[in-house]
Amino acid sequence: MDGLLAAVGLGVLLVGTEAFFTALSVVNLRHQETAVADNSEWIVSELGIDDPEEALSYHRVKTGVSKLQSWVTLGLLLLVLFSGLFADLVGALDALGLSPLVEGLVFVVGLVLAIQLLSVPFDVVDTFVVEEVYGFNNQTLGLWLRDQVIGTAISLVFAVLLGGALLWFVEAVPLWPAAGWGLVMAFTIAFTVIKPRVIDPLFNEFTPVEESPLRDAVDEVFERAGYRTDEVYEMDASRRSSHSNAYFVGFGPAKRVVLYDTLVEGMETDEVQSVLAHELAHWREGHIWKFVALGAVRFAVVFAVLGWLVESGVVYAPFAVPETAYVGLFLGVLWIAPLNRLTSPLENYVSLSYERDADAYAVEVIGGDAMARALAQLAADNLSTPFPHPWYETFHYDHPPIPERIRRVRDLDPDVDAPGDGSTDRGADPGAASD
Length: 435
Prior knowledge:
Layout lengths: L1 H37 L1 H8 L4 H31 L2 H10 L5 H34 L7 H32 L3 H24 L6 E3 L4 H13 L6 E4 L10 E4 L6 E5 H6 L2 H16 L2 H26 L12 H18 L1 H22 L2 H14 L8 H7 L5 H11 L23
Parallel strand pairs: 2-4
Antiparallel strand pairs: 1-2, 3-4
């Protein structure tokens, strides 16, 4: 009876969480339609999006594809779990006579490959249909296939290394949740260093920004902020998409500034400087390390709950599977993942504060006019719909809405030109997309 209740509870949690986020998406789409219609003149004059209906359409289609993928994935997962197929697969692995560690690694590899295979048709539709129709896709089929192969190989390497270590901890270390937490935190920090040096160059070309007006503009931002770096690169993002952005990444010697070539080509120099100043603020104010600390707390809770679920045995009974480490971890994660999604507003709340601080710093260093124009340009370049429903914003947005950001920039710098229609009241402009 306990097993049946646990099975029902897991099913309700998984389906209920997905239904909740789907409902949020539907409410958000309806809200966007009304808000865009009421503020279309502001969108055209302030953000430079010539056709607000096109932005709405893009958001509808992207949301639809994403939700379809989520429900198909969940449906297949529930089918495998509750049809008995999962127990059969575990039994077949157990019959191979492998050691528990090797058996677990075979399961991990199979799981990664299954997830990658399931994502392929949706990624094809998103890249070669949705992004193509709306003028964003620049990928060839050959480049896409190359990315898929390399991405899968990288996923397998990390999954085997991390999964193997965690499985060994469960079998050999008394306080394995604490060891697992330490492993994940060490990996998080190491990955921040490895990613820009090893992984990113496998997908994109990073050209050092040498002596040029662009480099002078970058150096000027750093000089105003009292910093200096020689690691400034332009990334060939246009090989895949016309979306634009910029970012800082890494720690210590691995720290670098990366500018999308689409951003460099689409923005004025002072607008690029304001984006850089915003990103620099995250580094200057220690936001990256603060997020690492926040992640440490979140992972501590995750591993504490995961440890209880695995050690108590409550995750095994509903599916009549042996109490082996990889089975317990897999089923435990199924319980924890929805809870992580439902608590996302906590992390978003912290991120929103950091983003506001970064915007304020960009205004201080470069000026509000350039920052306001850069925000508007990012929205236009990415066909952002700037009016999310407040509840959707709470669960999905880690950046403040763009109308809110532009309004705040104007409050911080009174010299910024007034908006086209003179009104960005929260009631009229309830949200925006992140940069």
